[in-house]
TrEMBL record:
<dbReference type="Pfam" id="PF10604">
    <property type="entry name" value="Polyketide_cyc2"/>
</dbReference>
<protein>
    <submittedName>
        <fullName>Aromatase/cyclase</fullName>
    </submittedName>
</protein>
<dbReference type="InterPro" id="IPR023393">
    <property type="entry name" value="START-like_dom_sf"/>
</dbReference>
<dbReference type="InterPro" id="IPR019587">
    <property type="entry name" value="Polyketide_cyclase/dehydratase"/>
</dbReference>
Length: 302
């Protein structure tokens, strides 16, 4: 990679940010176990499925080496370990190597093939994502942005959470949602296809994976985004305060620079796109927060 080794190591080290950088990674939870040790709970796509595992990582910043081992695997993986290494290269660049060792449930050939395919595909995608980010860090800084909207609800937090978690009812509750297909393959995991209506009457379809943490958080990542977005992740966060329940909608978006002229016109810039998305996405969030407040504060919710 034509990027400094320390910069590349930082991308690998900061695993909580992986969903905004790595296409397959959906969500990461982190717990520090010591100065150079941590536990990660990771949700990701693999061969078209959504999978979840727990990893222990040991970090060696001096050698720019990170060793990982899955403590809890998701079948057909029986065991998985490996390491990231970043070495200095010529002309200020570096070489990044990602190594895996694994075993499959019952050592079945079909399980070995599934893991080999998923690991190879995801690893190649992640390496390409890291290379693109590291070699174009300045440009990406102009395309990636975050924002949040909040509403204070004087009602039961369980009702607010229910409104946000019961996305299957959104077409009847949210004016900007035309249709929504919701599947829940396991407890706390939701796969959602949603058709959203814009202010001009146009519609666009998004596909998302949501991970629910009752009764205080729902995190999500869009697998299929509108044309102007390359990445969209977010979360609904509920926090008890003296004034009620503070409900916050967080968004992190990477603008799809190639789509700017077609969507916003030839004179539009990344700043134009950021403003447009802030208003459009934030507007939908504000509407959802307002209706969640009304729902939770209604007499039936008491």
């Amino acid at each position: 990679m034509a990027a400094p080794a320390d910069q590349v190591y930082a991308l690998i080290r900061d695993a909580v940010d992986w969903p905004q950088h790595f296409i397959p990674t959906l969500h990461v939870e982190r717990a520090a176990l010591g100065p150079d040790s941590e536990r990660l709970w990771i949700w990701a796509t693999a061969n078209g499925d959504v999978t979840h595992w727990t990893s222990h990582r040991t970090l060696d910043p001096r050698r720019r080496r990170i060793v990982f081992e899955q403590e809890v695997c998701s079948p057909p993986v029986a065991a998985m370990s490996g390491e990231w290494t970043v070495d200095d290269g010529p002309d200020g660049g570096c070489e990044l190597v990602l190594h895996h060792t694994f075993s499959a449930v019952d050592d079945l050939p079909e399980n070995v093939d599934w893991i080999t395919s998923a690991t190879d595909r995801n690893s190649r995608t992640e390496l390409a994502n890291i290379r693109a980010l590291a070699e174009n860090a300045q440009a990406d800084a102009e395309l990636l942005f975050s924002f949040a909207d909040s509403e204070t609800v004087r009602g039961p937090s369980e009702q607010v959470y229910a409104f946000l978690q019961e996305a299957g009812a959104w077409p009847d509750r949210l004016p900007h949602v035309s249709r929504l297909d919701l599947r829940e393959p396991s407890e706390g995991l939701q796969l959602m296809t949603m058709v959203t209506r814009a202010g001009n009457g146009s519609e666009h379809t998004t596909e998302s994976v949501r991970v629910c943490f009752p009764h205080d958080r729902i995190v999500y990542k869009q697998l299929t985004t509108p044309p102007l977005m390359a990445t969209h992740i977010g979360q609904w966060l509920l926090q008890e305060t003296d004034d009620g329940v503070c409900v916050t909608s967080h968004h992190t978006i990477r603008v799809n620079e190639a789509a700017i002229p077609a969507v916003l016109g030839p004179e539009a810039t990344p700043a134009t796109a950021r403003d447009y998305l802030r208003e459009a996405v934030g507007g939908n969030s504000a509407a959802t927060l307002s209706l969640a407040k009304r729902f939770a504060e209604a007499p039936h919710a008491v």
